[in-house]
Write a structure and sequence with these properties.
- The chain is mainly beta.
- The protein is built from two helices and 15 strands.
- The protein has a single domain, classed as Jelly Rolls (Sandwich), CATH 2.60.120.200.
- Strands 1, 3, 4, 6, 11, 12, 13 and 15 form an eight-stranded antiparallel sheet that branches.
- A hairpin with a 2-residue loop joins strand 9 and strand 10.
- The longest helix is centred in the last third of the chain and has 22 residues.
Amino acid sequence: MALPLSLSAALSVYEPFNYTAATTLATQNGGTGFSGAWSAATGTSTVSAPGLAYSGLTVVGNRATTTAAATTQTRSLSASLGGSTGTTYFSFLLRPDAATTAANAEFGFIGSASSVFVGKAASGNTSNYLLDTTSGSGGTQVASSTAFANGTAVLMVLRADFSGAGNDTFKLYINPGNSIEPGTPDATQASFNVGTVSAIQFTGNLGFSFDELKIGSSYADVVPEPSTYAACIAVAGIVGMTWRRRRSATK
């Protein structure tokens, strides 16, 4: 019996940071769903080996890392997000490597009206992961109950419900399950309109790693796949047991 061992996600954007280790991230142009290479607004980010590990998630290539100095890295999207109604899911892995409460590491959408980031901030709530929205009139933090811990990779999943002309709603899930979208997010922000999103960006200092950036139209697109392999093994085992019993009964 032939059984599929994996399910393919329908991703509009995917960046596995599959670049040569010890190179500078700026000017790298891999992945899919982008209109150009990474560019450095400030500082330097490097590619380091290996990629981040997370249960159930297939990791390709290496990872992006920040140094002690502040860095901001930006990349333009092939197709813009927002500007009309619709739902988009965005996920990535984040690991603090040498962080303190003064450290910053956030990844997010750069919009025409405002921007939304998720990660760890250097001011306000400096202990827990949060959802951070900024605009010309200021910003708002919504903290989760999950504290950052050096050496531990977390999966950040952001659900963006774009409204068009009104305020957009953003829901942050931290280390969610891989089959059903949680009913209760770890943080929610619903008082900003980002406008049209044409780029993604991460900022960081004091040592962080980013990996496996994904953008898709459904929750299942951006989370680790359910254990299809394990399910296949279980089904195959049941079929094998049934076949052996029938064979024994005919002897």
